[in-house]
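Protocol step 4 of 6: structure prediction from sequence.
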Amino acid sequence: MPAGIGDTVRRKEDLRLLTGRGCYTDDVDLAGQVFAAMVRSPHAHALIGAIDVTAARAMPGVLAVLTGEDARADGLARIPHLTAAGTPPDIVLTNRDGSPVPAAPHHVLPTDRVRHVGTAVVFVIAETIAAAKDAAEKVHVDYEPLPAVIEATAAVVPGAPRLYDDLPNIMIDAEVGDAAATAEAFARAAHVTRLDTWINRVTGVPMEPRAAIGVYDAESGRYTLYAGSGGIVRQKRELAAILGVPDESVRVIAREIGGNFGTRNSFFPEFALVAWGSRRIGRPVKWTCERNEAFVSDYMGRDLTVGAELALDADGRFLALRTRNLSNIGAHSGSYVPLVKGVGLVTGGYRIPISHISARAVLSTTMCTTPYRSAGRPEVIYVIERLIDKAALEHGFDRVALRRRNLIPPSAFPYKNPQGITYDNGTYRAVMERAMELGGWKGFKRRRAETRKRKRLRGIGLCCYLETTGGYPRERADITVHPHGRVDVVVGTLSSGQSHETTFAQCVAEWLGVPFDDVHVDESDTDIVKEGGGSHSARSMRLAGIVMGNASDLVIERAKKIAAHMLETAEDDIAFAGGRFTVKGTDRSVGIFDTAKAAAADQTLPEDLRGPLAATCDETIKQLGFPYGAHVCEVEVDPQTGGLDLVRYTAVDDVGRAINPMIVHGQTHGGAAQGIGQALWECCTYDAQGQLLSASFMDYAMPRADMLPTFTTDISEVLTPTNRLGVRGAGEGGTTGALGAVVNAVVDALAEFGVTHIDMPVTPEKIWRAIQSGKK
């Protein structure tokens, strides 16, 4: 069976995962291990007074009860979150008053105050998990409650409760673009449309809640952390920094991740606590998060308040965009990436010559927000796509015609948007037309009429999205060809469901001309993986493809020299194809595994050709990638109840080269489900005191299979010129296109009631209220 680039191949991972043979963090059990539990704050904002651990320490089986003062005494540093406010070629946000962009600190255990419900305040270690939980209940903490501030709009008001004595609530107050030129464009515009909206806060809800095991070896002074994350090299460096030890004193192992979506990319306090706890007691320490803990202590995503305006001329050409983006980053500076990425892409795939963006990042007494699937891009694409539909309604344009008129044409590439980001290439309009064709756009009026006979409402929505993929720019691949017929590929990415074991093997199998089943990919252990950025921002295949390809070239180059020696000919006379080195014009040849065997055993080879047949490529690649696509959604609404059925969903995504089309379709299905979930059901909701009201599956509404239609998906493959594979990235487009497509469809269904917008999640109650308001 073919198993190269572009072939549909069953995933190598599936047999292991579907038959229960995977190894998740909680599956790891070590000799002599003990268990940990957290004492978590019930307050959103409070000063920490005395902490009485006497009774807890006296409980049977208790080995340690540790506080923030213990951590400080042992020299544990704050978590070194990667909070960068942008690096080229991304947008760089700088405070308009010239002050440096600060970072609100995040300690593994606080000593002064808690700043969100669920903050770990005390770390308990015992012989059993039951003993640890019992002891945690005996800990008494004196709290002095302080006022909470939940919404970003409230946190920026003068006199709002401050989270830090030495820091303002506003971490970033930046502006990007030409304010004067934008104002002039709006002044001469024939039409202006405004949208005020909030992109709701959500969380990843991974299949396996977080877990971690820390092991300290006193003899070597070395720490080992078992923990699923977004990238083991990053976690290794961050753990070393917190513990104050050299990087080489830390080893991180991650096998199956159990779901990520970005929420596991940043470092969590518990990862450091289990390693530190192991050093304190001399035994492995294991902690497994319970689902209710996860809701309050997992990093969250989105939470962006936006006020946006679009200026159009009399013919519907876009003149300028003006927007205010206010990002609620929570209690600590976990990441500024969503705000940065969103600013760079506010104009989407449209020709909008001028823009001006106000961008602010604000602290609040809620859990941190960090990059969540397609960080920052779904939010701003949602805004521009809602603006376009709203402009069509308000000013008498056809919403499809507006998009056709303003999408960037192929002839305009490379295209520099007004924020300074240069897009590579694409056929944006053709993809939109294909999505409309597959989505049955032309037959919609007939379906709407049929729906009316059943006394229901029907709407159809369109969203044209543009992605930007970047992330950590450094990646490394090590490839070794073994004499016994095996190729090992070590890469610094980390799969959390993206099928790297399959797609990476497809690439290397084709380049080296070896059987697909003979290629084995390893990303799981920092004793093997020396460098790499993990998986985020759809970077894995794009960057790994470059370094794996270059390492493969180096392997072939060296093997060619060995083959020339074996075949007693000049190197220039050797041709390589299909895994064999052949003397040109003859039938004399050797296979690549033969050359590996010779390199290991043939003493007649020149010294520089002996040893393992292996190569390494380590590169820093700052070129961005730009996936794009179009989604069409169709909904039915019961006007009596506001109940909504999602009846059709179509997605066409251009990912550049599709290494394995089946996997790309799967990524789109999963991404669309996440985006639809946010649009219709999911929301992290706090009350005024900062208590999380959506802290269980009783209150946090997840999409289920029976709530979703069968997806129609198609792949466009316009190769990007920015890398050898032509890959753009496939992991996030499904989510990015979903928000706008779904909400546009709902608003279309309700247009007869004068409804022009509903904030997400678009619940039945909101729909019913909008209909009742329209009737009045």
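Step 5 (inspection) to follow. The chain has 21 helices and 28 strands.
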